[in-house]
UniProtKB/TrEMBL annotation:
InterPro entries: Aminotrans_IV (IPR001544), Aminotrans_IV_CS (IPR018300), Aminotransferase-like (IPR036038), B_amino_transII (IPR005786), BCAT-like_C (IPR043132), BCAT-like_N (IPR043131), BCAT_family (IPR033939). It is an enzyme of class 2 (transferase). It catalyses: L-leucine + 2-oxoglutarate = 4-methyl-2-oxopentanoate + L-glutamate; L-valine + 2-oxoglutarate = 3-methyl-2-oxobutanoate + L-glutamate; L-isoleucine + 2-oxoglutarate = (S)-3-methyl-2-oxopentanoate + L-glutamate. The keyword Amino-acid biosynthesis applies. Belongs to the class-IV pyridoxal-phosphate-dependent aminotransferase family. Gene3D superfamilies: 3.30.470.10, D-amino Acid Aminotransferase, subunit A, domain 2. This is Branched-chain-amino-acid aminotransferase. It comes from Glycine max.
């Protein structure tokens, strides 16, 4: 597709405020403010959509036009950042994130309404969670306002990559990285806050079909007083081996048990878990080892509004036998039905499909997120 490269007014203002047109951003230097703003050029506003086959979207990375980037020194505050062309970043080999894993990530989505408006779902919750994680990982973090403003800038700059209504969303991946150089084990002297984006639809290859989970007993995801409750990058590589093994055996993903007793449900590699029996829905309490998911929290509130009794508590693995329904929640995953769980070679099956609690909750939360159901809770933030 031939793309005309011209300025368009609202984005131009945004980019002039804070732009660098370097495709490769140097962020691993000692100088916190190495790059200077310069105007960026962007696609014409009449390129309403990027040249994407929206019907074949999954959860693979599709790079977009721009990313947002800002940095600050330890002990200072992040200032206004800049949009630059999506591209590689240059890091010192001694960057804290490369050597000691000092990094956090977030995930949130932008949705396109039928009237073209763009919506974010509870973005301040991601900002708060990043702040809490940054404290745990001894990192500087952006303010809530900076974080939300940065998300809005990233969405606007990549507007043509937000899928049409009903075809998916623009996944936003905020990263907070210790990019300053260190050798001895210590917090990095410099931090980078970056957001990139990718259009996405279903997370699992199953699409919206029910998941088949495997209860993992050989590996733990988190331990008491560790970092299981924060979204540090260092929580995620360790789950890969179990996930790969389970996928080889035909499972969709792995469900973890608590490391202390191996008797209680924790979470799936990439999402939280709920079980339902009658009108009662239970989910493991966020006790320090479980990520406090924003979809999890929202689904709990919606379920209570719909008259379900929701319990956040210790959920014993044996309760899987009695459950009517099991479902997962997460930003990437959404509200996903679980069709079966295999534990110690015993396969348990659950009700899925029309009329389920999972479907009811999914319809409500996705309706709010995409603007087809009125947001009575103040969860939606309009981008433009
Ligand atoms: C998300 O749901 O946004 C996550 O960050 C999970 C990730 C493993 C895709």
């Amino acid at each position: 597709m031939i793309q005309r490269i011209v300025y368009f007014p609202s984005l131009r203002k945004l980019l002039l405020r804070a732009g660098s047109n370097s495709a490769s951003s140097k962020i691993g230097t000692n100088n916190c403010f190495a790059s200077q703003p310069s105007p960026l050029r962007s696609h014409s506003s009449d390129d309403e959509y990027a040249d994407v086959d929206w019907d074949s979207l999954g959860f693979g990375l599709m790079t977009t036009d721009y990313m947002y980037i800002t940095k600050c020194c330890e002990g200072q505050n992040f200032g206004q950042g800049q949009l630059s062309r999506y591209g590689n970043i240059e890091l010192s080999p001694s960057a804290g994130v490369l050597n000691y894993g000092q990094g956090l990530f977030e995930g949130t989505k932008a949705y396109r309404k039928e009237n073209g408006g763009l919506l974010l779902f509870r973005p301040e919750e991601n900002a708060i969670r990043m702040k809490i994680g940054a404290e745990r990982m001894c990192m500087a973090s952006p303010s809530i306002d900076n974080f939300v403003d940065a998300l809005k800038q990233t969405v606007l700059a990549n507007k043509r990559w937000v899928p049409p209504p009903g075809k998916g969303s623009l996944y936003l991946r905020p990263l907070l990285l210790g990019t300053g150089p260190v050798l001895g084990l210590a917090p990095a002297p410099q931090y980078t806050f970056l957001i990139f984006a990718s259009p996405v639809r279903n997370y699992f290859k199953e699409g919206s079909a029910p998941l088949n989970l495997y209860v993992e007993e050989n590996f733990d995801r988190a331990s008491s007083r560790g970092t299981g409750n924060v979204k540090t990058i260092s929580n995620y590589a360790p789950v890969l081996m179990a996930q790969i093994q389970a996928k080889k055996r035909g499972f969709s993903d792995v469900l973890y048990l608590d490391s202390a007793t191996k008797k209680n449900l924790e979470e799936v590699s990439s999402c939280n878990i709920f079980i339902a029996k009658g009108k009662c829905i239970s989910t493991p309490a966020t006790n320090g080892t479980i990520l406090s998911g924003i979809t999890r929290k929202s689904v709990i509130e919606i379920a209570r509004d719909h008259g379900y009794q929701v319990e956040e508590r210790v959920v014993n693995v044996d309760e899987l036998i009695e459950a009517d329904e099991v479902f997962c929640t997460g930003t990437a995953v959404g509200v996903a039905p679980v069709g079966s769980i295999t534990y110690q070679d015993k396969r348990m099956e659950y009700i899925t499909g029309s009329g389920t609690i999972c479907q009811e909750l999914n319809n409500t939360i996705s309706g709010i997120q995409t603007g087809t159901i009125e947001d009575k809770k103040g969860w939606i933030v309009e981008v433009d």
